[in-house]
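Input/output pair, single chain:
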Amino acid sequence: MGQHEIDSETEPYHPSKMERKEYIGIGEFLSIDMRTGIIDDVKEFPEMRKPSYKIRVDFGPVIGKLWSSAQITNYTRGQLIGRKVVGAVNLGDKTLPTGFVSQFLVLGALEPDGTVRLLELPDDTLPGSTVA
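Output:
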């Protein structure tokens, strides 16, 4: 499945419709570098076909600050700035048709209609912490 779609009529991401994925092994899973970070900038992204923001996340002293495009407009900019998130930071850069370079994937749970709900972290989680 590629980029997700939001569809409140057919609810394509209802848990009863989602097939179990193939076994990949612990080695492949551990090769994904998932880190915690804090959103420190959010910009409107009206050029995108689907409602999106440009978000910048500070992933701490080793990774630093990275940008991503995210379909998380169900949150206000005020709800996002300062929020702790989880990101996959080693999937490679993706240049969007607008020329914007997305450097990581922010992680969340898909509601049945495709709306993204960001993962929650404890308040004392340090930016840059590895997700295990």
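The longest strand covers residues 34-44. Residues 34-118 form a domain with the OB fold (Dihydrolipoamide Acetyltransferase, E2P) fold (CATH 2.40.50.140).
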